[in-house]
Amino acid sequence: MITQDTPKTESLNSEHGLPMSSQTVAIAETPPPTPQLAFTTGSGCIYCGDSLQLLNNQNIVRPGSVNIIMTSPPFGLVRKKEYGNVDADQYVDWFRPFAEAFYNVLADNGSLVIDIGGSWISGQPTRSLYHYELLIMLCREYHFHLAQEFYWWNPSKLPTPAEWVTVRRIRVKDAVNCVWWLSKTPYPWEYPTLASFTS
Ligand SMILES: C[S@@+](CC[C@H](N)C(=O)[O-])C[C@H]1O[C@@H](n2cnc3c(N)ncnc32)[C@H](O)[C@@H]1O
Q1: pLDDT averaged over the chain?
Q2: Which of 64, 80, 81, 197 is the most exposed place for a label (fewest CB within 10 A)?
Q3: pLDDT at residue 189, rounded to an integer
Q4: Domains plus CATH for the chain?
């Protein structure tokens, strides 16, 4: 969701499609649709569609104007979802166009919060490092700061991969997502009531 006081247009005509390059592979069969204005209030609005097109349209999202981006992007899963996932070993390359767009639209004291699930290496009972590689890429290449990491405990996750978790029973069920809170400065704008959670 992106909010802004005065939306300029209801749809985009950007030439941007999926974040494809020679290094990236997007497997979604149907590209995300061109963003459409879906809902407006006095405080802002909601667009529905390809976030990359939206973020790269300066008529709608002014560079340096966004306080916070909260995203749960497609994860680098072995078993693909209908909306499309890239493989873990291509994930960082696939994410770079988003990283660049996120950095450009964020205010200097803005925050980027990414909910990201871990993944397994295909065919063996060990974990991928892709979400840690993403975090390091964002900090090293885009100079984001890691304000803090959180872990979303979700005990209702499915016990997969069944081969390791329920058949051979040599691994325990995965039950967390990582939540990376990143910022452009070491002192991002803090919501005033954060103090009430920490006291
Ligand atoms: C990991 S899922 C999010 C899951 C959600 N957080 C949840 O817990 O149910 C990723 C979502 O991103 C959407 N998506 C993929 N590419 C997108 C894009 N370029 N712009 C906007 N949304 C996109 C997918 O359709 C999917 O709904």
Answers
A1: 85
A2: 197
A3: 81
A4: 64-198 (3.40.50.150)
